[in-house]
Amino acid sequence: MKLDNVIRKYGREVMDALKSCHDGDTVKQVISQAGFQVTDGEAKDIAALMAMVTGQLRELSLEELSQVTGG
User: Fold this and answer.
1) Measured between alpha carbons, how far is 14 from 35 in angstroms, rounded to an integer?
2) Each residue's pLDDT tens digit, 20-69
3) 8 to each of 41, 51, 57, 59, how far by Cα in Å?
4) Three-class SS string for 47-69?
């Protein structure tokens, strides 16, 4: 999942709230409180994306790197 897709789907306010999420369960809570539904898989993907966006360092796979860079 790409960052711009999350922003388009849920909006910037939800995106800002998601930055404090560290796992799929908290992602699901934030998104459901905003009136949206998300699957467990999507929540996990969004949590991983938020970890990258907020600067939690780890090695990226080529697929993840492609998603982050959009190409």
Assistant:
1) 10
2) 888 999 999 999 999 999 999 999 999 988 888 777 666 677 887 788 78
3) 18, 19, 25, 27
4) HHHHHHHCCCCCCCCHHHHHHHH
Global pTM reads 0.70
The structure tokens listed for 24 are 């799929």
Helix (H, G, I), strand (E, B) or coil at 31: helix
Nearest alpha-carbon partner for 50 in 35, 8, 14: 14
For residue 69, give Cα distances in angstroms to 45, 48, 49, 56. Answer: 16, 15, 12, 17
Q: Which of 68, 28, 33, 69 is nearest to 51 (CA)?
A: 68
8: tokens are: 């388009």
User: In terms of Cα–Cα distance, which of 25, 71, 24, 67 is closest to 44?
Assistant: 24
